[in-house]
Amino acid sequence: MKYPIVKGTFDILPQETKEEDLWKESHRWTYIEQILREEAIKHGFREIRTPIFERTELFERGVGASSDIVSKEMYTFLDRKGRSLSLRPEGTAPVVRAFISDHLYQTPGIHKFFYIGPMFRYERPQAGRYRQLHQFGVEAIGTMHPYQDVELIDLMYQIYQRLGLKNLSISINSVGDNSSRMAYQAALLSYLTPHKDQLSEDSQIRLKKNVLRVLDSKLDQDQKILKNAPLISKYLSKEAKEHFQIVLHELNQLKIPYQVEPRLVRGLDYYSNTVFEITSEQLAAQNAVGAGGRYDGLIADLGGPNLPAAGFAIGLERLLQTMLKQEAFFPGPLKPNLFLIPMNNQATQLAFKLTTQLKHKNIAAQMDLSGKKIQHGLQLANLLQATAIAVIGDEEIHSGKITCKKLATRESHTFSIQHLIDNLKGWLNV
User: Fold this and answer.
1) How far is it, in rounded angstroms, from Cα 258 to Cα 251?
2) Fewer CB in 10 Å around end: N or C, the chain?
């Protein structure tokens, strides 16, 4: 019996795949995860890891019951004691929960975290959108200074530059503080109510639950109505305007390109003040490769101290797909420096001893354990793209010497088995 993979999920494989699936090769994931970690740590963020599932009410309260994530997309189930649990659909609410429950706020200063891991959303699978997705995210808790917003955008921009991405578009907006949003929600509701019957079914529901969510609609029938809707920029408080102007000024100082998108609100209920999104034209409809913003009230809403915060998340699937479409650099998979091919049982014992010693000295070594003919070992070595090979038989055992041959140049060199480890590094340049 075969067990097909669950719809909306995929395997990440340690070998070459067909061209449309190159983004599923594990060495590419390892590479970008390494870059993400290095850049986050360089900017003062430290890794945090939270459970795959949490209490459902955390996301209902943290993400917002009116959001599509909570109302349509969560994987929710009852455990054996009847408690409602959900696979995490996003990373911010769990980080904030950990910050509160583990009393991390008792340490003074700005708290800066990053995470990498899978999220789960029951969506219609399509390019760039999956039911198990992977995100890298950062959260900065403890300051409402606009410079913190700028640092986050700069970090995201530096990550993309280091990964070699180009032709990216940064959109930014302010959704204001509480007083700004209350005034704007009233104005938007007043504008949309006469058009209620022309709105899509989803937008009619959003009109009742959270009118700002109507702005997220991509449907043409909604966009036609929204074309003349009031803009939140006209309802920003003095403090919100000043905050946003500082952010824009500092982005100009750093020469980070952006455009103000007055209808950008993001799809989560907890955002306030600065929101931003980075998109790529090469990902069609699902074109966002990273997004975030400020969420100054979320920690208090979840039972913690009244501390401001901001963060962003990057979808790794879309990031990889964008890099491949733009032909960005990827290092190749790790290859063995030396591949040993033993010809008999005694040679196998010696080859195993040598490969073990070589690996302990940071020389990547592998061997053929099949017991088949030399041609089979050579095929394996070529498949693994080994730098060099060495055949071990009776002659090598009796002489105490083995000859190593580089596959690319056919250059060969004979080494004493006793001193192989000492001399091999220089010959292989490792």
Assistant:
1) 8
2) N
